[in-house]
Design goal:
- The chain is an alpha+beta fold.
- It contains 11 helices and 9 strands.
- The strands form 2 sheets. The protein has a 7-stranded mixed β-sheet with strand order 1-4-5-9-8-7-6, sandwiched between helices. The chain has a two-stranded antiparallel ribbon with strand order 2-3.
- Helix 1 runs parallel beside helix 4.
- The protein is rod-shaped.
- The N and C termini lie far apart (91 Å).
- It binds 3,4-dihydroxyphenylalanine (DAH).
């Protein structure tokens, strides 16, 4: 039995020497030392031996088991270290590598300008018209007729207005003023609204003109609204938008849907009124059109001009952004050059 033990011991030892990995070690442990392993089946025979032999063979068996355990543990530790090192080497994080650059989007300058203007008017008590009352594909009826624009008015000419093919009387709106009509048809005074949106005109594109751009329309209708209210609101808007108190000028003008009408100028941002290339030497920049709502317009939507009065205004978002940020070409807003867009 001693011999048997020694044979197994020797073969276990040589297996351990040949082992290459932790899993080899585990296999050897299973083969020799587990409950179903070779030593255990021999140890079962111990009970048939004499007491004397039991003691010596038992002691030998214990010693051999301990030796093998020891050897296995040593080998296991060596392989463990080795495998760990390999793994650490392989999984090493190279902290000298460049990180991934994430491009961050930003708000388009026109959106930002629109938001700013809208919020100024909201603070002055105006609310924003629901989009369904301000459609971009519009009828001549809303874009012109109801705004008191005569049938023969040159703005209706196909050279200025885009007419939708095969749909008589349907246009891409040339101004946001049609929203005034939609609102007044849907709401009784007091009405105090603004309506931002895109408009289309058949222009030759250049640094100053694009065939679509953006406007913000305003309308305030109530009892006793006067030209003084118009001046007060628009002066306050200009003060808030351009910052410091800039001189303004209300210049008599004409629009079919307002009477009287005024264009509003602000002192040139570039030359402070001295006269430069931007203001064509006048010292003034025109920034919006406005006026008291024409009584024909009020009557058209069933509002009695003897009871109610109102003022309206319309401004170009691109123009206001160009003046504030000294941008000299309207096309920059639309050709998606990141070098331009990233400046805002
Ligand atoms: N709709 C005009 C345009 O496109 C701007 C305008 C002028 C709007 C006077 C108004 C207004 O509401 O009262 O040029």
């Amino acid at each position: 039995m001693k011999e048997q033990l020694e044979n197994i011991y020797n073969s276990a030892k040589s297996d351990i020497e040949k082992a290459q990995s932790i899993s080899d070690i585990d296999e050897i442990r299973l083969k020799y030392l587990s409950r179903k392993g070779e030593f255990n089946s021999i140890k079962k025979g111990l009970k048939d031996l004499s007491d004397e032999d039991k003691r010596t063979v038992g002691a030998l068996a214990n010693k051999i088991t301990q030796d093998l355990e020891e050897m296995l543990r040593e080998k296991h530790d060596i392989f463990y270290q080795k495998e760990l090192n390999e793994k650490l080497q392989k999984d090493r994080i190279d902290i000298t590598l460049d990180g991934k650059y994430f491009h961050q989007g930003r708000i388009h300058p026109l959106t930002e300008t629109t938001n700013e203007i809208v919020s100024i008017f909201q603070n002055l008590g105006f609310s924003v018209v629901a989009p369904e009352l301000s459609p971009e594909v519009e009828t001549e009826y809303y874009n012109f007729d109801m705004l008191n624009v005569p049938k023969e008015h040159p703005a209706r000419d196909v050279q200025d207005t885009f007419y939708v093919k095969d749909m008589p009387g349907v246009v891409l709106r040339s101004q946001t003023s049609g929203a005034q009509i939609h609102v007044m048809e849907n709401q009784k005074p007091p009405i105090k609204v603004i309506s931002p949106g895109r408009v289309y005109r058949n222009e030759n594109i250049n640094a100053r003109k694009n065939n679509f751009f953006h406007q913000i329309e305003g309308l305030y209708v109530d009892k006793d609204i006067t030209f003084g209210d118009l001046k007060g609101v628009l002066n306050e808007f200009i003060r808030l938008y351009f910052g410091s108190a800039r001189p303004t000028r209300f210049r008599s003008s004409f629009f079919p849907f307002t009477e009287p009408s005024a264009e509003v100028d602000v002192q040139c941002i570039m030359c402070q009124g001295k006269g430069c290339r931007i203001c064509s030497g006048t010292g003034w920049l025109e920034i919006l059109g406005s006026g008291m709502v024409h009584e024909n317009v009020l009557r058209g939507v069933g509002i009695d001009p003897d009871v109610y009065s109102g003022f309206a205004f319309g401004m170009g978002v691109e123009r206001l952004a160009m003046l504030k940020y000294a941008i000299d070409d309207i096309r920059l807003f639309f050709n998606n050059d990141k070098r331009f867009l990233e400046q805002f």
